[in-house]
C-alpha cells in the first residue's frame, strides 16, 4: 500500500512543483478503507545517471526526513527516468531500508503498490535458497526468472501466473529498464486506491498514484494493461 510517482525526462527546474505536490501525498494521500492516514513506512528515489541506476532509500518517515528527500531530488538535476515511492506497509515491523522501494536488479528499477498475500508460495520458483524478501521483492525476483525473454515478456508471464495462482490486493507498479518507463494497474479490491494516472507536461510523461496538479489533464490507466513509455 503505497504512493508512486514516475517521470520520463525529469528536470528539477521543470518538475519540482509536481514533486512537491506528490510529497504532500505522504500526509494526505488516499488510504484504503479502515487504514490510518499517511504513507510514512519508508521511502525511496530511483533514477538513472550515465545509463546506470542510482537509488537512495530510507526506512524512516519521509515527513520526518523531508530535507533529506528534497536534497536528493535537487541533486539529480535531470534524468531520463525518475521513480519515487512512499511506503505504507501491510507487514508489521518491516520498516527498514531493505524493504523500501524501488528495488533494483542490474538495470531494472521496480516499485509496487499492493500486497501479494501469499507471496511465499513464489519462493520455490526463485533460484536462491537464501532469499526471504517480502512480497514486492519477491514479485521482482519472480519476474526475473524469465528475463531472458525480455522485460516486457517476463513481466506479462509473471503477472498472468500470479493472477491465476496467488491471493493479492493489487499488482499495480511502475518500473524501468533505463530506457522505457512501464506502468501497470491490477487489483482485486479498492479500485479507488490502487490507481495510476497519466499526463504529459513540458516534453515529459508523468505517472502518479493520484493527480498531483490541477493544471494538467490526467487520464486514469486501464486495468490489466501494461503501458510502455
Task: Give the SSE map.
Blueprint: E1 2-11, H1 12-23, H2 25-28, E2 43-49, E3 52-58, H3 66-76, E4 78-87, E5 103-105, E6 108-113, H4 135-144, H5 151-165, E7 172-176, E8 181-184, E9 197-201, E10 204-208, E11 219-220, E12 226-228
Antiparallel strand pairs: 1-4, 1-10, 2-3, 2-4, 5-6, 6-7, 7-8, 8-12, 9-10, 9-11
Total individual domains: 1
| CATH homologous superfamily designation | Aminohydrolase, N-terminal nucleophile (Ntn) domain
Q: DSSP strand (E) fraction?
A: 25-35%
Average pLDDT level: 96
Strands of the widest sheet, in order across it, are 3-2-4-1-10-9-11
Overall geometric form = globular
Proportion of helical residues? 10-25%
- SSE run: EHHEEHEEEHHEEEEEE
Q: Could you give the distance between the termini?
A: 24 Å
CATH fold-level name: Glutamine Phosphoribosylpyrophosphate, subunit 1, domain 1
How many β strands by DSSP? 12
The rounded Rg comes to 16 Å
Instruction: Please give the CATH architecture.
Output: 4-Layer Sandwich
Question: Any overview of this molecule?
Answer:
This protein has about 230 residues and is of the alpha+beta class. The protein has a single domain, classed as Glutamine Phosphoribosylpyrophosphate, subunit 1, domain 1, CATH 3.60.20.10. The chain contains five helices and twelve strands. The strands form two sheets. It has a seven-stranded antiparallel sheet with strand order 3-2-4-1-10-9-11. A five-stranded antiparallel sheet has the order 5-6-7-8-12, covered by helices on one side. Helix 4 crosses helix 5 (about 150-165).
Amino acid at each position: 500500500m503505497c504512493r508512486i510517482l514516475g517521470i520520463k525526462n525529469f528536470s528539477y527546474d521543470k518538475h519540482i512543483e509536481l514533486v512537491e505536490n506528490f510529497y504532500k501525498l505522504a500526509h494526505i494521500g488516499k488510504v484504503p478503507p479502515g487504514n490510518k492516514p499517511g504513507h510514512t513506512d519508508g521511502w525511496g528515489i530511483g533514477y538513472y545517471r550515465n545509463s546506470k541506476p542510482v537509488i537512495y532509500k530510507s526506512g524512516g518517515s519521509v515527513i520526518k526526513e523531508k530535507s533529506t528527500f528534497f536534497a536528493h531530488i535537487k541533486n539529480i538535476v535531470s534524468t531520463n527516468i525518475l521513480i519515487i515511492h512512499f511506503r505504507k506497509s501491510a507487514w508489521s515491523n518491516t520498516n527498514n531500508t531493505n524493504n523500501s522501494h524501488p528495488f533494483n536488479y542490474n538495470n531494472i528499477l521496480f516499485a509496487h503498490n499492493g500486497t501479494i498475500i501469499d507471496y511465499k508460495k513464489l519462493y520455490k520458483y526463485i533460484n536462491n535458497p537464501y532469499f526471504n524478501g517480502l512480497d514486492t521483492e519477491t514479485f521482482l525476483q519472480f519476474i526475473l526468472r524469465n528475463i531472458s525473454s525480455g522485460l516486457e515478456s517476463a513481466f506479462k508471464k509473471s503477472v498472468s501466473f500470479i493472477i491465476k495462482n496467488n491471493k493479492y490486493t493489487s499488482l499495480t507498479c511502475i518500473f524501468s529498464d533505463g530506457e522505457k518507463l512501464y506502468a501497470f494497474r491490477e487489483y482485486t479490491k479498492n479500485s479507488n486506491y490502487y490507481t495510476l494516472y497519466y499526463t504529459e507536461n513540458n516534453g515529459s510523461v508523468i505517472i502518479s498514484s493520484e493527480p498531483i496538479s490541477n493544471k494538467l489533464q490526467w487520464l486514469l490507466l486501464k486495468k490489466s494493461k501494461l503501458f510502455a513509455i
